[in-house]
Design brief:
The chain is of the alpha+beta class and about 400 residues long. The chain contains 14 helices and nine strands. Strands 1-2-3-4 form a four-stranded antiparallel sheet, covered by helices on one side. Strands 5-6-9 form a three-stranded antiparallel sheet, with no helix packed on it. The longest helix is centred in the first third of the chain and has 24 residues.
């Protein structure tokens, strides 16, 4: 039995000759060339209407084609309700949405590129599976294998899980509840690992004794400003305002495989910010760093931290050189370049700077990001605030 078709309608436009059915559902229309077209309008996706059409020679063929389309839609909707959606179809729909978001400027090219890496891994694993077969047990076992056999970090697996839940959401299917806790030997527990005072002293001593000039300037700048590595690489001379003691952060350098270095706007709207910095930082950049460039016959660079060819330094190269310096300096704890940013922020918290100011200077999208990421340090600051009153006699608490 074919689904019931609608037989009464009012044409939406004068040039339409709808002979059966309804606009916005399914209908048959007679074309100017004497042929007939079966048209099935699907429910809007992201506000955009889509249609499936079949052109036929006769009215009877068009009616049968419409009935077939309606039946296929019923089967599709039933499968969707039951989760019987091929993963390869679901992931392609997710890719379309991702591409649309990139065109609209809602996500950056680097983000879309990173997502594609995750999608390829998921596609390799589940390409021939339907969503209803991807149960909690299946996903838990998959994630365990990634952590134990492939030695991936829990941060990577957690990101993979977020993207996978987005694929389910795009297909309007409930995502299975995951019970597995993401942790393995590569994880560092608390994701914030600032340098200790002793470690900073070790680094300062190392830079005094060794000729790591460009990296010493990068180190001082990153520690003082708390900028991300891409923001450091993307800093231009025209973003320095020494008369106001302000540096504007409005560019970031990213690396995309197959494309090389690309200049973009910062990570979020809030990341485009103006930082008030000590004037000594301008002396270091405008005097010491420029003198270093003159010694090496590097003139009129666009970027503050530049190569000989007036191109920005690659964030990957900065990270590689930084890790070498940490090893040479004898630091036992593994530190990333991003830990300089953590150090900057935690030092501000320790000095009692309010959360709003810290969040703005860090370029966080929201204060909650600052509070959640550095929750341990805010608790310490709150305890210090509470300790102010511990020696004050509270007369109203006397025993009655």
């Amino acid at each position: 039995m074919y689904p019931q078709m609608y037989t009464q309608c009012t044409p939406k436009r004068r040039n339409q000759n709808i002979i059966m059915g309804k606009p916005n559902t399914g209908y048959v229309m007679e074309l100017a060339n004497g042929k007939f077209k079966a048209i099935l309008e699907l429910p809007p996706v992201n506000g955009k209407r889509t249609k499936i059409t079949r052109t036929c020679e006769t009215r009877g063929q068009a009616k049968k084609a419409l009935a077939d389309l309606l039946l296929k839609r019923e089967v599709h909707m039933k499968n969707q309700r039951e989760g019987i959606v091929p993963f390869k179809d679901a992931i392609e729909e997710y890719r379309k949405n991702l591409s649309l978001k990139q065109k609209l400027g809602q996500i950056k090219e680097k983000t879309a590129h990173d997502y594609e890496g995750f999608l390829k891994r998921l596609e390799q694993e589940f390409k021939y599976t339907s969503l209803n077969k991807m149960t909690s047990a299946v996903l838990d076992n998959y994630y365990k294998r990634l952590l134990t056999e492939e030695n991936l970090s829990s941060a990577y697996v957690a990101k993979l899980n977020i993207i996978l839940s987005g694929i389910f959401k795009t297909s309007k299917i409930a995502f299975p509840e995951i019970s597995f806790k993401y942790n393995n030997k590569r994880d560092r527990g608390n994701k914030v690992h600032p340098f200790s005072t002793h470690e900073l002293e070790v680094l300062n001593q190392y830079f005094k004794e060794h000729h790591e000039e460009i990296m010493s300037y990068i180190y001082a700048f990153a520690l003082t400003t708390g900028c991300r590595i891409g923001e450091v690489a993307g800093l231009k001379w025209d973003c320095l305002y020494p008369e106001e003691d302000i540096i504007e952060i409005k560019n970031t350098i990213i690396y995309i495989s197959g494309k090389g270095l690309i200049e973009e706007t910062p990570k979020t709207v809030e990341s485009h910010r103006r930082l008030v910095v000590p004037h000594s930082l301008f002396n270091m950049l405008l005097v010491d760093l420029k003198e270093h460039y003159r010694k090496h016959n590097i003139n009129n660079t666009t970027y503050v931290f530049s190569s000989r060819n007036d191109t920005p330094l690659s964030p990957r190269n900065i990270l590689r050189d930084w890790q070498k310096i940490c090893r040479k300096a004898g630091l036992e704890n593994h530190h990333t370049f991003h830990d300089l940013r953590h150090t900057n922020i935690t030092l501000k918290i320790a000095k009692g700077i309010d959360v709003k100011t810290v969040s703005i200077m860090a370029g966080h999208a929201d204060i909650s990001v600052t509070l959640n990421t550095y929750s341990h340090y805010w608790k310490e600051a709150a305890q210090r605030a509470a300790d102010i009153f511990k020696d004050i006699p509270l007369a109203y608490l006397k025993d009655k």
